[in-house]
């Protein structure tokens, strides 16, 4: 069955707080507890719990952790609540807002999601994923997204720091790229070839799986933009002008199914390597390198 198009959760701060409050209430109800029961566990008044669940009282990370303990949340429930709490501190993530805040800050934010996750699944239809990019390729990509020249170096440095997570043996990464992303050139032909040669090296990582969707296999109709999934509990999806952050379980589950469907169209291992090497040869011949 083809997955439904995901409904993206708004990232407005007030909406995020309302969502977090609803998640706390749903968790309490799922444990068959009354507000007074939770109040006793947390040593607060019942009215305090009521205000938390209505969204009238904002929560910080430490308070969410206390609620997690009181309600004996599962690791996945804890992860979902903490990720949602982070959204309550953020402005809407239009790319212009991201640029105004500083692109390096965006890299640090993504790193915080990655460091708290054990499994990261990503689909990228147009460029090589950020965790797999070489520095010179990064510079071209960031300039293409409008990052000011004065910010490019710091943003590249922050992204390189993010890439250290790839060496963590207790994490799993599953990247899927469209074949066209191998030929799309945000960079010069020489840099594009350097990027593809580096991509080949990542096939040697035991914790990393890379799939390529060949042009002749087409694409999944709903897979028109890139997205990342963290522990099947949280996701980000990109549009032309903004990044959406998704925490609703149903929407994340839709993206998990979509990633699996894209994977069924992809090729892996030696087949994927042949496609990448063919792209390198084509680029070299076209540019007379």
Brief descriptors of the model:
single chain, alpha/beta, Endonuclease, Chain A, 2 domains, six-stranded mixed sheet, 6 strands, 54% helix, disordered N terminus
Task: Characterize the structure shown.
The structure is a single chain. Helices cover 54% and strands 11% of the residues. With 289 residues, the chain is of the alpha/beta class. It has 2 domains: 13-87, 434 Repressor (Amino-terminal Domain); 95-287, Endonuclease, Chain A (2-Layer Sandwich). A 6-stranded mixed β-sheet has the order 3-2-1-4-5-6. The protein starts with 12 loop residues before the first helix and ends with a helix. Mean pLDDT is 85; it is low at 1-11.
Q: Into which percentage range does the β-strand content fall?
A: 5-15%
Largest sheet: 6 strands, mixed
Low-confidence stretches: 1-11
Our count of domains comes out at: 2
Gross morphology: elongated
Strand elements, count: 6
Distance between the termini: 46 Å
List the topology elements.
Layout: H1 13-30, H2 35-42, H3 46-54, H4 61-70, H5 75-87, H6 95-101, H7 103-115, E1 119-124, H8 135-144, H9 149-162, E2 172-178, H10 180-183, H11 189-201, E3 208-213, E4 227-230, E5 234-238, E6 243-246, H12 249-265, H13 269-287
Parallel strand pairs: 1-2, 2-3
Antiparallel strand pairs: 1-4, 4-5, 5-6
């Amino acid at each position: 069955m083809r997955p439904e198009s995901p409904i993206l959760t708004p990232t407005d701060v007030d909406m995020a707080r309302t969502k977090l409050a609803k998640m706390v209430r749903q968790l309490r109800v799922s444990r068959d507890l009354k507000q007074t029961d939770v109040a006793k566990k947390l040593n607060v008044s019942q009215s305090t719990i009521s205000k938390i669940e209505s969204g009238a009282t904002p929560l910080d990370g430490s308070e969410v952790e206390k609620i997690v303990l009181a309600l004996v949340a599962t690791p996945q429930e804890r992860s979902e609540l903490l990720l949602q709490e982070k959204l309550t501190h953020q402005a809407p993530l239009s790319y212009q807002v991201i640029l105004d805040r500083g692109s390096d800050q965006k890299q640090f934010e993504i790193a915080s999601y990655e460091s708290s996750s054990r499994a990261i699944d990503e689909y990228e239809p147009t460029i090589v994923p950020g965790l797999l990019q070489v520095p010179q390729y990064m510079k071209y990509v960031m300039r293409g997204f409008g990052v000011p020249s004065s910010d490019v170096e710091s943003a590249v440095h922050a992204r390189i720091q993010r890439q250290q997570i790839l060496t963590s043996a207790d994490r799993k990464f599953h990247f899927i790229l469209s074949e066209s992303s191998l030929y799309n050139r945000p960079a010069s032909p020489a840099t594009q070839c350097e990027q593809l040669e580096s991509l080949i090296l990542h096939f040697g990582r035991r914790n990393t799986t890379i799939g390529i969707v060949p042009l002749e296999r087409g694409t999944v109709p709903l897979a028109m933009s890139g997205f990342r999934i963290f522990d099947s509990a949280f996701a980000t999806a990109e549009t032309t002008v903004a990044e959406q952050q998704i925490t609703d379980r149903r929407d994340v589950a839709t993206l998990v199914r979509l990633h699996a469907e894209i994977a069924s169209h992809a090729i892996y291992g030696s087949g994927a390597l042949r496609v990448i090497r063919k792209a390198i040869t084509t680029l070299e011949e076209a540019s007379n390198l």
